[in-house]
Amino acid sequence: MTTAEANPERLPVVVVGAGAMGGEWLRMLARSAHAEPVGVVDLDVDLATRTASSIGLTDAAVGSSLADVVERSGARAVINVTVPQAHRVVNEQAMRQGLPVLCEKPLAPTVAEALRQVALADLTGELLMASQSRRYFRHLAAFRDAAAQLGPLGAVHAQFFHADHEPGFREQMAHPLLVDMSVHHFDMLRYLTADEPVAVRCASWNPSWSWFAGDAAATATFDLASGARFVYSGSRCTPGLQTSWNADWRVYGEHGAASWDGDHLVQVDAEDAGFEVAEASEGIEGALEEFVSVLASGLTPQNEVRTNVLTLAMVEGAIRSSERGGDRVVLAELLEESLAQAIADEKSDDVADLLRSWPSAAEAIATRAWGSSPQPVPHASGGAR
Questions:
Q1: Backbone conformation region of residue 166, classed left if phi is above 0, alpha if psi is from -120 to 50, else beta
Q2: In whole angstroms, how far apart are CA 98 and each of 12, 77, 238, 265?
Q3: At CB < 8 A and 24+ separation, what contacts does 258-264 make?
Q4: What strand order describes the sheet that includes 35-41?
Q5: Total domains in the fold of the chain
Q6: CATH classification of the domain holding 261
Q7: What is the model's pLDDT at position 157?
Q8: How far apart are CA 300 and CA 374, in angstroms?
Q9: What is the per-residue DSSP string for 266-313?
Q10: Residue 72 domain-assigned?
Q11: What confidence tier does 7 reach under pLDDT thresholds 50, 70, 90?
Q12: Burial code of 311-348, b = ≥16 C-beta within 10 A, e = fewer?
């Protein structure tokens, strides 16, 4: 008997998106003790059928309509693994059908669109959670424990250098590093410290040998609320001396320093400082476990939609700064400009009315609307890319 077969209480879910990442989710779900893949949705029904069959999901409902597949399968939740441009449409369809959603990152291409999804979640009362999978990596949790013993922080440094070939939408993006990879590292910074970003200066570019259409390299410096700095540099087209997918990290504080190679090596240089690496599910499996857990408990996950907005603001702020020649972008100003844009863009009267009722974007994302009490942050964080 498999682990999945041993638990008859698995949450029945529909996966929307049958591409490479959708297949990765379906393979994980097929062996999960927490959720059962009962349906697959994709505009390419043949692809959805082939993907489901290749994993042995012969009983799963397959189709191009989310409503139809949900009705035939009896699903009680949706996992959105579509391309980023389709995230809001799928999330809205699911939540208006009364279904909670676990959505792959980035939740939205802009902060304005993310705010519209915050309003949708408020209106429907459904959970919308972003799968920032790198938070669920046990060595990152150990690194966070080490960094917490350093006292006030002066600086956090992260470097990401890789060379990945992923033909498809990623290689055609205007900012494939910042939007598709740095979003992970920026979110990890927010997990690592309680020191939120307030402003950014950034430069991005595309090396002459790059196979990406858009900027595959960038440097960024974020001002943090305490006065400390987060210094980031990265590239998706550097073939030598590559770092971990999780980046290579250094934290410097009043009482010492700590480092993490992004994989398994955590070090701390501070008197009496120590840490433990706890057992925990990692990557998308960790995100799924938290999603299923909070649906049962009514608590709020660490990546509930409003919590994730500031991570997206870090990405959009970095892009704005780069496009303005490295000018300093204040994230609080970006949030309020994004709220005005969200109101202008929204076509549904109920969503637009709710957006207009908010005193500010900052207050809206600071107010917890789903769950009865804060969810303790799990002692683990993100592995899979």
A1: beta
A2: 14, 9, 45, 43
A3: 258/143, 258/146, 258/147, 258/149, 258/150, 260/139, 260/140, 260/143, 263/139, 264/139
A4: 61-63, 35-41, 11-16, 77-80, 101-104, 128-131
A5: 1
A6: 3.30.360.10
A7: 98
A8: 5
A9: EEEEETT----------HHHHHHHHHHHHHHH-PBPTTBHHHHHHHHH
A10: no
A11: low
A12: bbbbbbbbbbbbeeebeebebeebbeebbebbbeebee
Confirm if 109 and 43 have CB atoms less than 8 A apart.
no
**Pairing between β-strand 197-205 and β-strand 329-330 as defined by DSSP bridges:** antiparallel
Q: What is the mean pLDDT of residues 333-359?
A: 97
Q: CA 78 to CA 385: how far, in whole Å?
A: 20
- Is the per-residue pLDDT at 234 higher than 80? yes
Instruction: Please tell me the predicted confidence (pLDDT) of residue 39.
Output: 98
**Cα distances (angstroms) measured from residue 334 to each of 39, 56, 199, 261, 269:** 38, 46, 10, 32, 37
Helices (H), 193-273: none
The alpha carbon of residue 158 and the mean position of all alpha carbons in its chain are separated, in whole angstroms, by 18
* Residue 150 vs residues 53, 251, 333: alpha-carbon distances, Å: 51, 9, 31
Confidence (pLDDT) at 167: 78
- Reading the block at residue 228, the tokens are 């400390």
Assess if residue 341 is contained within a domain.
no
Question: Whole domain around residue 201: which residue ranges?
Answer: 138-270
Task: Give CA separation, 62 vs 9, 48, 93, in Å.
Answer: 22, 7, 17
Instruction: Please indicate, yes or no, if residue 7 is contained in any of the structural domains.
Output: no
What pLDDT does 351 receive? 97
* pLDDT over 90 at 170, yes or no: no
Q: CB neighbours of 301 closer than 8 A, spacing ≥ 6?
A: 127, 129, 290, 291, 294, 371, 375
Give the containing element (helix H, strand E) for 153. strand 153-161
For the segment 258-307, what is each residue's pLDDT rounded down to a tens digit? 999 999 999 999 999 999 999 999 999 999 999 999 999 999 999 999 99
User: 159-192 burial, b for 16+ CB within 10 Å, e for fewer?
Assistant: bbbbebeeeeebbebebbbbbbbbbbbbbbbbbb
Q: CA 265 to CA 275: how far, in whole Å?
A: 12
How many Å apart are CA 177 and CA 159, to the nearest integer?
12
**Which strands, in side-by-side order, build the sheet including 266-270?**
266-270, 256-260, 248-253, 153-161, 229-235, 217-224, 197-205, 329-330
Residue 196 lies in a domain: yes
